[in-house]
From TrEMBL, chain A:
<keyword id="KW-1133">Transmembrane helix</keyword>
<comment type="similarity">
    <text>Belongs to the binding-protein-dependent transport system permease family. CysTW subfamily.</text>
</comment>
<keyword id="KW-0813">Transport</keyword>
<keyword id="KW-0812">Transmembrane</keyword>
<keyword id="KW-1003">Cell membrane</keyword>
<protein>
    <recommendedName>
        <fullName>Molybdenum transport system permease</fullName>
    </recommendedName>
</protein>
<keyword id="KW-0997">Cell inner membrane</keyword>
<dbReference type="GO" id="GO:0015098">
    <property type="term" value="F:molybdate ion transmembrane transporter activity"/>
</dbReference>
<dbReference type="InterPro" id="IPR035906">
    <property type="entry name" value="MetI-like_sf"/>
</dbReference>
TrEMBL record, chain B:
<keyword id="KW-0547">Nucleotide-binding</keyword>
<dbReference type="GO" id="GO:0005524">
    <property type="term" value="F:ATP binding"/>
</dbReference>
<dbReference type="InterPro" id="IPR003439">
    <property type="entry name" value="ABC_transporter-like_ATP-bd"/>
</dbReference>
<dbReference type="GO" id="GO:0016887">
    <property type="term" value="F:ATP hydrolysis activity"/>
</dbReference>
<dbReference type="Pfam" id="PF00005">
    <property type="entry name" value="ABC_tran"/>
</dbReference>
<feature type="domain" description="ABC transporter">
    <location>
        <begin position="2"/>
        <end position="200"/>
    </location>
</feature>
<keyword id="KW-0067">ATP-binding</keyword>
<protein>
    <submittedName>
        <fullName>ATP-binding cassette domain-containing protein</fullName>
    </submittedName>
</protein>
<dbReference type="InterPro" id="IPR050334">
    <property type="entry name" value="Molybdenum_import_ModC"/>
</dbReference>
């Protein structure tokens, strides 16, 4: 059985990953829809910025977040002055770092799903009297659900595995920002920490594996089933 | 006049052009494939914008100088070549998608012979069944006119007969103006009140 300390780490990781995924979900879907359906100037730039965290070293992403959310930063300054909120050294900051790192993966999965929605069905709905809004809610969105779920699971898995951006942005505070990867790293720095590192690694692998299998099953479901006659 | 259509549209290497005036009943657009028959239906439905021209149906201008009525307000009952049923909705939900609340689906399911299909899913339907459901869905959306794109293609003889009778019922009993595309002379003869031939 995991110790109390290990439980704290696991529960914190699930909280950070869950919140990161839930908050990022609508943002990722909006971006995915925009990139899949709308041709606008600067589209390539938006796409590049969304996918940037995939290719930039996570430490850099973490540092950029630190600058943005720091007391003198363009987001952190107003947050602190107007609402008295600071995300530094807090689990909320860890969730922000995880969400930013998961965003590109989520956008990619959802975008493929939206692009796979048959436009001919949407045209048929228009001829039946449905305006663009109704077409979105009754066709585009429900038909993209498998991709949305796959993106969410993938985003969640990525979030609970986040390391570089998190440790740079909100440090490694036990009980607050010390998620699974950070705890494993900390254990490896300590003498006699190997056993706990091993147990946490096993939990981490199990969680990631479960998420990947779920994501794959959802993606497969997206592939079949919905066919136009 | 039911249909007054004067349109021109360049699609890649092909120039689609048609000028016709047609009265009540079923007007059949006849001609070889690739001549732009479906494109004409798409222009009438608003799915394709003509380069120039005028489309008036039942006295209402749908497209013309300064006028381009949005697709959803054209009241076109469009039955596509593929049924295009919504795969995540059962037959009943497909039928009522464009219908007013509380509409009685049996007004069309009876003569189309699809009463028994209401709780089925589109993927479980045969080609003929799906086609008839698509016709029913178009009719229930309270259309001002019907657009039928090869409604009998890829159906076996018995199914063709069923769908053909449905179309004749719409033409003679419901008296909805119909614009239908086909490349089959026999179909054109049987259904068409008049035949408009499109050539390259």
């Amino acid at each position: 059985m995991p110790s109390a300390e290990e439980w704290t780490v696991v529960v914190l990781s699930l909280k950070v990953g869950g919140v990161a995924m839930m908050v990022t979900l609508p943002i990722a879907f909006a971006l995915a829809w925009l990139l899949a359906r709308v041709r606008f100037p600067g589209r390539l730039l938006v796409e590049a910025i969304v996918y940037l965290p995939l290719v930039v070293p996570p430490v850099v992403t973490g540092w950029v977040l630190l600058l943005a959310f720091g007391p003198a930063g363009p987001i952190g300054g107003p947050l602190e002055r107007w609402f008295g909120i600071s995300v530094l050294f807090r689990w909320t900051g860890a969730a922000i770092a995880a969400g930013v790192m998961a965003l590109p993966l989520m956008v990619r999965a959802m975008r493929l799903s939206i692009e796979a929605v048959d436009r001919r069905l949407e045209n048929a709905a228009r001829t039946l009297g449905a305006g663009p809004g109704r077409v979105f809610w009754t066709l585009t969105l429900p038909l993209s659900v498998p991709g949305i779920l796959a993106g969410a699971v993938l985003g969640f898995a990525r979030s609970i595995g986040e390391f570089g951006a998190t440790i740079t942005f909100v440090s490694n505070v036990p009980g607050e920002t010390r998620t699974l990867p950070l705890a494993i790293y900390s254990m490896l720095q300590q003498p006699n920490g190997d056993a706990m590192a091993l147990r946490l690694s096993a939990i981490s692998v199990t969680l990631s594996l479960a998420a990947l299998v779920a994501s794959e099953l959802l993606a497969r479901r997206a592939g079949r089933g919905f066919h136009v006659l | 006049m039911s249909f007054e259509i004067t349109v021109a549209k360049r699609l890649g290497e092909i120039d689609v052009a048609l000028e016709m005036v047609a009265g009540d009943g079923a007007t059949v657009l006849f001609g070889p494939s690739g001549v732009g028959k479906t494109s004409v239906l798409n222009m009438v439905a608003g799915l394709l914008r003509p380069d120039r021209g005028r489309i008036v149906v039942g006295g209402e201008m749908l497209f013309g100088t300064g006028v381009d009525v949005p697709i959803e307000r054209r009241r076109a009952g469009y039955v596509f070549q593929e049924a295009r049923l919504f795969p995540h909705q059962c037959v009943r939900a497909n039928l009522t998608y464009g219908a007013a609340a509380g509409v009685d689906v049996t007004t069309v399911t009876g003569f189309l012979g699809i009463d028994d299909l209401l709780d089925r899913w589109p993927r479980s339907l045969s080609g003929g069944e799906a086609r008839r459901v698509a016709i029913g869905r178009a009719l229930l959306s309270d259309p001002a006119f019907l657009l039928l794109d090869e409604p009998l293609s890829s159906l076996d003889r018995a199914r063709r007969e069923e769908v053909m009778r449905g179309i004749e019922h719409i033409r003679d009993v419901l008296t909805l103006p119909i614009l239908m595309v086909t490349h089959d002379p026999e179909e054109a003869e049987r259904i068409g009140t008049r035949i408009v031939t499109m050539a390259r």
